[in-house]
Amino acid sequence: MMKAAFPGSFDPPTSGHLNIIQRAASIFDELTVVVAENKQKKYLFSAEERASMIKELVKDLKNVSVTVCDCLIVDFMQRFGIKLLVRGVRGLEDFSYEFELSMMNKALDPGIETIFMTTDPEYFVIRSSSIKELASFHGNLHGMVPPLVVKALKEKYIKD
């Protein structure tokens, strides 16, 4: 059985994230979406909110599970017997960053492999940070994030 993990902050989950999840789910027997909880980062949504949104978005994908992780991804993967890490990349900047992470993970656990999946072209420019900025100005998020996430973002910024 081929199991893989797709970790990220998903703050918020974007259409690009969902695209990678759907494509990876069609390749692997089991895909675990791992929502990162890093105490040193400031998130717009709590880990539970991010995980809840993703669970709703992937509810029809029977081989996808969603969990929150507050440890190193290699420790998480060792605990659950996962050897394959999926990382989405949009361009060279992403690849450079993800390549360095993959080398660090490989140094921590030589048994872990990383597979890079390029995003589909329509999601090339979508960054979670840009989505949050656009949402804070009440901009049009159509196509960038699923409707469920648009609603959650509007609720976060309603007080503005």
Describe the structure.
This protein is α/β, with parallel strands linked by helices and 160 residues long. Helix content is 42%, strand content 19%. It contains six helices and five strands, in the order E-H-E-H-E-H-E-H-E-H-H. The protein has a five-stranded parallel sheet with strand order 3-2-1-4-5, with helices on both faces. Strand 2, helix 2 and strand 3 form a beta-alpha-beta unit. The model has no long low-confidence stretch (mean pLDDT 92).
Descriptive key words:
160 residues, five-stranded parallel sheet, globular, 6 helices, alpha/beta
Residue share in helices?
40-55%
Widest β-sheet, arrangement of strands: 3-2-1-4-5
How many angstroms separate the termini?
A: 48 Å
Which residue ranges are poorly predicted, with pLDDT under 50 across at least 5 consecutive positions?
none
Beta-strand residue percentage? 15-25%
Q: Could you describe the largest sheet, including whether it forms a barrel?
A: 5 strands, parallel
The whole-angstrom Rg is 15 Å
| Structural class assignment | alpha/beta
Tally of individual helices: 6
Please report the total strand number as a whole number.
5
Order of helices and strands: EHEHEHEHEHH
The overall average pLDDT, rounded, is 92
